[in-house]
Amino acid sequence: MLPNAIPRKQLFTASCLALLVTSLSFGIRAGILGKLGTEFNLSGSELGTIAATAFWGFPLAVVIGGFIVDVIGMKRLLVMAFIFHLAGILLTIAATGYWTLFISTLLIGIANGTVEAACNPLVASLFTDNKTTKLNHFHLWFPGGIFIGTLIVVAMNYMAVHNIIFNPATVWHFEVAMMLIPALIYGYLFSKLKFPVTERVAAGVSNATMYKSIFSGLFLFMILCMFGTAITELFTGQWIDVLLKNVTDNALLILTLETGVMVVGRAFAGPVVRQFSPQGVLLMSSILAFLGLYLLGHSSGNMIFFGALVFGMGVCYFWPTMLGFVSENLPKTGAVGMNLMGGAGMFAVSIYMIIMGKHYDTLVANQLPAGADILLYKQAPVGSAMSNALYEANKAAGPAIINFTMMIPLALIVAFGCLNLYMRGRKKPDLLVAAPARH
């Protein structure tokens, strides 16, 4: 039981707002990535590196945060997250090219990782008897923010095209600025609220025991699986507008549909987790994610939206259920364990994005005449032979990347099938918690 002085509902609400800023950064960046490429003459490889930078900052912050959160407290960590968010958002708005976008995206990535470094153990400490379900409720604000972010981009772009309020050339500045609203609110709330200590500290689990648990076979196996679940969910979502923009006129709405499904699914995570167990949910998710990617990579027209629906159902529970599984079955790993999971996932995504960005450029180049200057094709007038050739090259490259990525959830089906067999008959360990307050 938490002391009465700990405002559990207010802390959970503020945590959701902090995660909302994180997810808005993903949704809005996915919506403006192509526009940034055009405005600053960036290649697919450069866009991949910029997008990946957020995923570098995240693991850096979440891993360091995991090691220091028990020392400095969750409150100080979240104040730091607010400062990084504020700096990253303002620098993005003022960006002038590749390097300012690189640095600003890195700062936002660090802020995002710091939020998760503090909020994941905070939610687990606030709801010790219902961790996987409440982590799903908390993490519904990740797809929720992407859903809201993509709608913001679609709505503002529509107004800009029709000369309503916004200018097409500068509208992306206002889209990024929308993140300042929830950022300022969560920064204020966290500065005023009283925090508990983490669950591991409250239970009196020593550092030595925690580090021993981290090197257990089951935890290392889950780290490897986190590579796959994170890439499947986050790479596809972040690059969907680039990969499918030449296949459908509504590529960004595919992301909106996918994330909308994820919001609903995570909202009803409680009965699903109770019925199938965390490991059972992970197996079903892998199957649906594989089918969804197959449909996205092999469909056209309205079938693409059905593929997005299936894919959204597949990746819906991945991230929070992975964290919940570790928190419930390996509780002695504490905040470090949860944050190593998140850091591993984001690091894997960052590496995969860079590799796929370069591979995308190669696939496009292979569809064009040998020695073709991509920049000249990008600058060619719409409707010209060069412009049409580039259109067809991009149209072929996007689904090819999706089909390659499809192999990852296929491997996860095998991994989580084995995990379900391993977990049969095993009981979840308990930690007795009576957390004292911390200012």
Order of helices and strands: HHHHHHHHEHHHHHHHHHHHE
Pick out the low-confidence regions.
432-439
Mean pLDDT: 86
In CATH terms, the superfamily is: MFS general substrate transporter like domains
Q: Provide the domain count.
A: 1
Assign the CATH class: Mainly Alpha
Give a verbal description of the structure:
This protein has helices at residues 8-39, 44-72, 74-93, 98-126, 131-139, 141-161, 171-177, 180-192, 199-203, 207-214, 217-244, 251-267, 269-298, 303-315, 318-329, 334-367, 374-379, 385-405, 407-423, and strands spanning 195-196, 437-438. It is mainly alpha-helical. Strands 1-2 form a two-stranded antiparallel ribbon. The chain starts with 7 loop residues before the first helix and ends with a strand. Residues 432-439 have low confidence and may be disordered.
Outline of the structure:
With 439 residues, the protein is mainly α. The chain is 80% helix and 1% strand.
Descriptive labels:
single chain; 439 residues; mainly alpha; Growth Hormone, Chain: A; two-stranded antiparallel ribbon; 2 strands; globular; disordered C terminus
Secondary-structure blueprint:
Blueprint: H1 8-39, H2 44-72, H3 74-93, H4 98-126, H5 131-139, H6 141-161, H7 171-177, H8 180-192, E1 195-196, H9 199-203, H10 207-214, H11 217-244, H12 251-267, H13 269-298, H14 303-315, H15 318-329, H16 334-367, H17 374-379, H18 385-405, H19 407-423, E2 437-438
Antiparallel strand pairs: 1-2
